[in-house]
Amino acid sequence: MTGEKLRSFTQQNRSLLQIGGSLAVVGAIGVFLLWFLTCPCDRMPGGYLLGDVSDGPVADWSFANDVTLCQIQISAGVLPHSINLNCMATPEGGLYLSCSQCETKRWSNAVLENGRARLRLNETVYPVTLTRVLDSRELDGAWSARVIKLNTLPEPANPAPPPGTPRPDHWWSFRVVSRS
Predict the structure, then answer these.
(1) Which pTM does this prediction carry?
(2) Superfamily (CATH H level) for 52-178
């Protein structure tokens, strides 16, 4: 191969590598945006929650019991962090989020620092404030609402504890209050 042909071959390969690299970067950005705007998916967290934003406060959250899982978006670092989560409304219409072993989870620790969040139910996003519940009676009420909801859903996301099951000690609940 002559020097001229070698230079031409090298330039063609360099151009192909640049095009391939550019396509890989564009593809990675596309995958990131798809994930960021469409998840949380199953147990994979997501980013920003899309949907119609509710413009008024909600006093009665009973309709949340018709939804298998709620989705919350919190601030946890530079990007928004959203997850699927059990939510349950009490007979009085109060709404609670709960989790097992919460002390090890990123979202719950972030909420302890900043309780401002966004909650999505049925493609509607509600600005809310989350507060950890420490009162035993209120915790028991949230647990009872969870047991009732999971036992009435046709296909719950988590196994339904039998009615009358006592609340585990490691169970955390967060009260959800609507912000306007």
Answers:
(1) 0.77
(2) Electron Transport, Fmn-binding Protein; Chain A (2.30.110.10)
